[in-house]
């Protein structure tokens, strides 16, 4: 290590950044509405880029409108350590999801510059576009990792039917330039992301840091049960082909399916149900619903993807229904790099904070970046396990601890000219 002075986080600067950025996209209900490629999202990107420039970083935006700030190293040709997350939000969001990782990364680079420390390898701070899924999710990191195609540009649309290409054009962007955002993996040494846990584990165990070892995979299906719409008063119960009863039966089957075919990290959720015709006095003839299934093991995910249709088929047969399903997305689980995980754990020990190793039950940009370079993640607690809500929060002492661990990890990964992540 060639660090002669010790950089330190300024929680006051980080607090001020959080306060300012949280004012962009806030509406009367107290939530943030900084969805991807809206005016608020673009204003947030402008604000962040200005902050990067004030910090002395070289700034740019790639074809996916990822905002990038580069801290040049002593060896500018060396593969870069990439840090970051996203600043776009779901509707009515809190102020930390994604944003804390970006602003903590910015504060780490400010601290290093203030201490006069120049890394051996370049460090790049990236705020990825549309992580939250307005147009499918992970768009910015997928573009960065070379995982999008012309089909992505042409077909991606939000729930309101607005096409990604049209929305980007409205913001003065050329959507086809996103295909040129791909980075050569040879230019990337590793990726480090700080994020709120979005769950209750760290809070319940009264720990300050989660050292992430694995990130869950997930698949999302759109499922339809088709029956027969009929009069609610004149159709005897035994003679009904009630599509909603198929959904109800399946919901009760989910715990058994997970017990028999899943593992301790398995999750399954029916988050949306739509009944057709949707009349109070009509037996539903069609029920469309979503299912979100997650696990840190690809093998377990495949087992669940095999067992779920068997259950749907049995229910349909029993209820006199038909069923079909479409795969909306499949994101592979990833293991974090063991060398990076050990480095984050050592950083936590150096900072004297309480921590545990754990898996992430949510998907993150790190998951996509794992396709092109080694990755690691740092979690800080979410009070009450809340996220995607105006009530989402993390205490400033835990925020400071997380940023401090990130800073010490950056020093390990970017200032050691003997470390090779390729």
From TrEMBL:
What keywords tag this UniProt record? Hydrolase
Q: Which GO terms describe its molecular function?
A: hydrolase activity
The UniProt record lists the keyword Hydrolase: yes
Hydrolase among keywords: yes
Pfam families to which the protein is assigned, alphabetical: M20_dimer (PF07687), Peptidase_M20 (PF01546)
Q: Which residues form the signal peptide?
A: none
CDD domains from the UniProt entry = M20_bAS
Name listed for the protein in its UniProt record: Zn-dependent hydrolase
Q: Which family does it belong to?
A: Belongs to the peptidase M20 family.
Residue intervals passing through the bilayer: none
Task: Output the superkingdom of the source species.
Answer: Bacteria
* Species: Haloferula chungangensis
The Peptidase M20 dimerisation domain sits at: 217-316
């Amino acid at each position: 290590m060639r660090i002669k002075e010790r950089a330190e986080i300024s929680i006051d600067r980080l607090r001020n950044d959080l306060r300012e950025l949280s004012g962009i996209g806030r509406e009367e209900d107290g939530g943030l509405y900084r969805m991807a490629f809206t005016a608020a999202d673009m204003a947030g990107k402008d604000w962040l880029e200005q902050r990067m420039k004030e910090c002395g970083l070289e700034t740019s935006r790639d074809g996916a409108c990822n905002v990038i700030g580069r801290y040049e190293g002593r060896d500018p040709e060396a593969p870069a350590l990439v840090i970051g997350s996203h600043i776009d939000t779901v509707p009515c969001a809190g102020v930390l999801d994604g944003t804390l990782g970006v602003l903590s990364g910015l504060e780490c680079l400010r601290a290093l510059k203030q201490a006069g420390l120049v890394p051996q390898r370049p460090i790049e701070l990236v705020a990825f576009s549309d992580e939250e899924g307005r147009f499918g999710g992970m768009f910015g990191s997928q573009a960065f990792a070379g995982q999008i195609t012309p089909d992505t540009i042409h077909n991606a649309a939000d729930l309101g039917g607005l096409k990604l290409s049209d929305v980007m054009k409205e913001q003065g962007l050329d959507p086809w330039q996103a295909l040129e955002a791909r980075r050569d993996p040879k230019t990337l040494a590793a990726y480090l992301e700080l994020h709120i846990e979005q769950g209750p584990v760290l809070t319940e165990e009264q720990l300050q840091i989660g050292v992430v070892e694995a990130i869950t995979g997930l698949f999302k299906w759109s499922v339809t049960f088709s029956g027969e719409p009929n009069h609610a008063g004149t159709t005897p119960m035994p003679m009904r082909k009630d599509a909603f009863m198929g959904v109800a039966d399946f919901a009760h089957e989910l715990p058994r399916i997970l017990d028999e075919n899943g593992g301790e990290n398995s999750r399954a959720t029916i988050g949306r149900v739509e009944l057709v015709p949707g009349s109070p006095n009509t037996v539903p003839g069609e029920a469309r619903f979503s299912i979100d299934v997650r696990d840190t093991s690809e093998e377990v995910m495949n087992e669940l993807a095999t067992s779920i249709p068997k259950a749907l088929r049995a229910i349909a047969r029993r209820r006199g229904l038909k069923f079909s399903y479409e795969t909306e997305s499949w994101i592979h689980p990833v293991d974090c790099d063991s060398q990076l995980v050990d480095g984050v754990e050592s950083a936590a020990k150096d900072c004297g904070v309480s921590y545990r190793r754990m898996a992430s039950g949510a998907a993150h940009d790190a998951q996509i970046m794992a396709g092109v370079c080694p990755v690691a993640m740092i979690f800080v607690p979410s009070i009450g396990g809340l996220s995607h809500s105006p009530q989402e929060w993390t205490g400033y002492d835990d925020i400071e601890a997380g940023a401090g661990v990130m800073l010490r990890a950056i020093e390990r990964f970017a200032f050691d000219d003997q470390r090779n992540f390729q």
